[in-house]
Write a structure and sequence with these properties.
The chain is of the alpha+beta class. It is built from two helices and six strands, in the order E-E-H-E-E-E-H-E.
Length: about 90
């Protein structure tokens, strides 16, 4: 358990694995395990520019019809479409 925040780190869920309707708070971004054509630093930079900041509330609004990709999420009042693979870098609780 993380004493400072009062929750177990096992409670973190990658946003890319979250079902439609899920609502959470962004804990942190960790793109080092994501397989993509761009670097993990570039993915993290893009997500931060979109407003995926620690402590921001996020809602999963919609899933694409094929393979549930992309997903539409609301963060800081903006609706953003993300590939599930990139959303896997966003850990929420």
């Amino acid at each position: 358990m993380n004493i400072a925040s009062g929750f177990d780190l096992a409670e973190l869920v990658p946003l890319g694995a979250a079902p439609r309707g899920m609502r959470g708070v962004i804990h942190h971004i960790e793109a080092s395990q994501i397989n993509a054509s761009v670097s993990s630093a570039e993915i993290e930079r893009r997500l931060l520019e979109f407003g995926f900041l620690e402590g921001a509330e996020v809602d999963v609004l919609h899933e694409g019809p094929i393979g549930r990709d992309p997903i539409a999420v609301r963060v800081n009042g903006a609706t953003i479409a993300l590939r599930r693979s990139e959303a896997m870098a966003i850990l929420v609780r």
